[in-house]
Amino acid sequence: MQVTETLNEGLKRGYAITVTAAELDAKVNEKLVEAQPEVEMKGFRKGKVPMALLKKQFGQRLIGEAMQETIDGAMNKHFEESGDRPAMQPDVKMTNEDWKEGDDVNVEMSYEALPEIPEVDLSGVELEKLVVKADDAAVDEALANLAETAQDFEAREDGAAAEDGDQVVIDFVGKVDGEAFDGGAGDDYPLTLGSNSFIPGFEEQLVGTKAGEEKDVTVTFPEEYQAEHLAGKEAVFSCTVKEVKAPKAAEINDELAQKFGAEDLAGLKGQISERLEAEYAGAARAVMKRGLLDKLDDLVSFDLPPSLVEAEAKQIAHQLWHEENPEVQGHDHDEIEATDEHNKLAERRVRLGLLLAELGQKAEVEVTDAEMTQAIMQQARQYPGQERQFFEFIQQNAQMQQQLRAPIFEDKVIDHIAEQAKVDEKEVSKDDLQAAVEALEDE
């Protein structure tokens, strides 16, 4: 087998690979020898079919398989000996398209090699870590929000009209074309006006009603309604308003605390304080991470594989276009052209991605099975009732596994770098932290 370099410009590489007819024939014979003990053929005992007959019978079928394995072997040997790591899947094509049995096989292989990543002195990196304490005002605000979510309703005075946000207790019967339908009736149903829990247009028509009042509510089922026999149909609901109740925020006391699993109010405040400080720490970490990436981006410079940059720029352009056009759900639109701004951002992402991968590899950073399981469980919660199917889907999908593994790996590498850098803590207010987070989103 011969491997001849044909291109070496920057990160671009090209090679001509020749597999001789003799090598290919030897590979076919090797595969026939492996298969011979299991082959059964009329007139011969199992495993005793002559090689000449086996080759005549199966040789043609094995040539393509042998050719692929031989070329793959040549490529793997090349990468082992050269130390090159292709940025993307190498482009491999056979050049003698008029090949026939007995000819040598000529192949061209081209790829872009990953660059050499320069050493970085992480001890010289200086970072600022924002620290926010959960003060009494923040805890009280969170308590008030909890009390609002735990609100109850109390009866309004006789004759009071229902307002948006009130709860009305109703009996109702729905009819389409004068006929009642399954699931269209209920008794003593507590409906919060403005909750959008009923068909669009239903709740608004009950605003202003009073206890003891009867009202016909006319609505049209959405075209995409899950019950096909009702989709797009007009319905009339005969409603009897039995009670009108005003919302009442829960009192902030031990009883409220117990509703949220705490022993008493002091315990609930402690839980809220811990949760808030965890949220602050997460936001502060995001700010510090951006600062770290900015510094790393300034510290290193090396050639980037054009194919990686181009693919990343296209992905960025596509994602941003969909964010600007949320009404377009599918991907059967015209190709989105990457701009100079997209290319610049792509270069940064590729550069930092390669650098973090190199630093993580040298530090032997690994994503554990437990960390992957936790990540899969978090994703599975988005599919209630289908968690098992989601787990099986992930197990069978290497690309999805990589999508889940990549951010975990990156975060662990960031932590590794931060451990070696000089980190100064700076206590700031919640508003200052919020401003820093918003600044990230604006960039």
Q: Which stretches are low in confidence, meaning pLDDT under 50 for 5 or more residues running?
A: none
Radius of gyration: 34 Å
Structural class: alpha+beta
Helix content: 40-55%
The total strand number stands at: 11
CATH superfamily of the largest domain: Trigger factor, C-terminal domain
- In sequence order, what are the helices and strands, one letter per element? EEHHEEEHEEEEEHHHHHHHEH
CATH class category name of the largest domain: Mainly Alpha
- Mean pLDDT, rounded to whole units? 90
- The CATH topology name of the largest domain reads Trigger factor, domain 2
Function: Involved in protein export. Acts as a chaperone by maintaining the newly synthesized protein in an open conformation. Functions as a peptidyl-prolyl cis-trans isomerase.
Subcellular location: Cytoplasm
Domain PPIase FKBP-type: 165-225
EC number: 5.2.1.8
